[in-house]
Structures are given as structure tokens and as C-alpha cells.
Amino acid sequence: NPARLPRWRGFNLDSKFQKDWQGPFPEQDFDWMKAWGFDFVRLPMDYRCWTGPADPYVLKEAPLKEIDDAVRYGRERGIHVNIAFHRAPGYTVASPPEKLYLWKEEEPLKQFCFQWASFARRYKGIPSSQVSFNLVNEPAMVSAEDYLRVATAAVKAIREVDPDRLIIADGRD
Predict the structure, then answer these.
(1) Mean pLDDT in the chain?
(2) DSSP secondary structure, 81-138, as one string
(3) Contacts of 162 (CB under 8 A, 6+ apart)
(4) φ and ψ at 82, to 5 degrees?
(5) Which side of the chain, N or C, has fewer Cβ within a 10 Å radius?
(6) CA–CA distance from 65 to each of 81, 95, 104, 147, 148 (Å)?
(7) Is the pLDDT of residue 143 over 70?
(8) Long-range CB contacts for residues 29-36, cutoff 8 Å, separation at least 24
(9) Per residue in 77-126, pLDDT tens?
């Protein structure tokens, strides 16, 4: 029911948009958003910012702490934080393309679910009214069946950790 959905107003902060161009989320941005009347921020992110290059199951704490800071800044100011994978294991709309293919291969799906379960653990206990997850940005050129299989697996991985987490799924082409 669309009437039950919140009507948020905000924009993207891109401090983790790509691994070669990343840094902390400036706290002042959250102050400005609050002062200007915004109540939503989307963090479009590249999983490679916090994932070890040699092992996709090793997560780097320093960049994750910067994401934690953004979540805290939002919560302190009443700004909803949406964590969004713009680049996920096996999928991106950017260059360079991923080596693996999320929609058909099991290994990137396993990594994708691992990533989301990790975020679910990290933010468990924070209400969905304050933090939500956007599984993957603009899933293009993928069949409905493949998209449903991947989204279902990711939602299951998240819900096994945090049954109440709000999850947003982008539309497909």
C-alpha cells in the first residue's frame, strides 16, 4: 500500500561511490541537510571500498567505520540513511565491469549475500525507520527470473540476521 510508505526528501552522498575515490562522509553535510529540511540520504556505494582485494570475504574495518559514522550522523539528526550498492559483487552499471556475473553465477551471489548479511549484522537493532537497504542500483538487462532469484537470496540472508529490516529493490529494465 503506497499510502503506508514514507515520503522522504533528500539526496545522495557519494563518499564511497567508487574504491579509487572514497573517503569519510562529512558530518557537515548532515548538518546542512537537517538545516535545509531534508530527511533522507542515500549512500550509493562500491563494495570494493571495504572488501579486501585478495579475499572477498575479508572486510576492512576503517571504511566500514566511516559508513557507521554516516549512519550515526543521520540518526542524530533525524535523517533516514539508505545503504545502496551501486557496485555489488558481480554487478555494476559503471566501468570497469565486474569479472563475475551476479545474475547467473553462484560465487558472486554468495559474495552478495555475505555483504548484505554483514550490513544486517552491523545495523541490527537500528530501526528501519532510520536505516534501510537498497540491494543493487539499476539492475539492467537481467531477466525477471534471475533478478527474483538474486533478490530473494539477498533478502533471505538479511532477514536471517535482521527479520525487520526495510529492503528496497530497484526496478528492472
Answers:
(1) 92
(2) EEEEEEEETTEESSSSPPSS-TTT-HHHHHHHHHHHHHHHHHHTTS-TTTEEEE--S-
(3) 120, 121, 123, 124
(4) -110, 120
(5) N
(6) 15, 26, 32, 30, 31
(7) yes
(8) 30/70, 30/73, 30/74, 30/76, 30/77, 30/79, 31/77, 33/77, 33/79, 34/77, 34/78, 34/79
(9) 999 999 999 999 999 988 889 999 999 999 999 999 999 999 999 999 99
Question: Rounded to the nearest 10 degrees, what angle do helices 61-77 and 106-123 cross at?
Answer: 50
- In three-state secondary structure terms, 31 is helix
Look at the block and give the residue holding cell 557496485: 87
Nearest Cα to Cα of residue 80 among 126, 16, 137: 126
The SS3 call for residue 161 is: helix
The x, y and z cell numbers of residue 172, run together, are 528492472
The model carries a pTM of 0.92
